[in-house]
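Form 7-S
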Amino acid sequence: MKKSLGSKTLLFPAPVLLVGTYDGEGKPNLMNAAWGGICNSQPPCIAVSLRKATYSYAALMERKAFTVGIPSQEQIVQADYVGITTGREVDKFAETGLTPVRSELVDAPYAAEIPVILECRVLHVQEIGLHTQFVGEIVDVKADEGVLAEDGLPDIRKIQPLIFDTAHRGYYGLGPLLGQAFAIGKK
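Output:
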């Protein structure tokens, strides 16, 4: 028998996404956002939801651009730090030792050390309640050559991305490959 848990933000797993923005003075900032994911195929889009109280919210509203970095398990400390501090008070790039890189395609920075980066232009802004959802068109994906598979696409096993447990607020890594999508169900 299932037990009712009520209305909660429980979805497993949630990605750990590092959202890069510039503030009004051009200062680069990163924040950790778990409320996000791919939301459209054509054009390719990602949605991230931020509270208005975050430092990144105003930057997104002003610049209409952001990057999304997918950190590796080795970057757990930096990823958590940029989620528990505010860019209003600290320079998160300086504090974490990450190197800001100016995107050539959108008005937003990313961290050079993060293995996969999505560069996004804001298409839609939707007030939902406590959060505002920003839908960004992915204008380019950049990946370190070391995390690419033989087909030239990112290899999740090489990236070793962090995943977030929304129920217990923990970070986890990946498990083994269980089957090939769009094929295993044909058995």
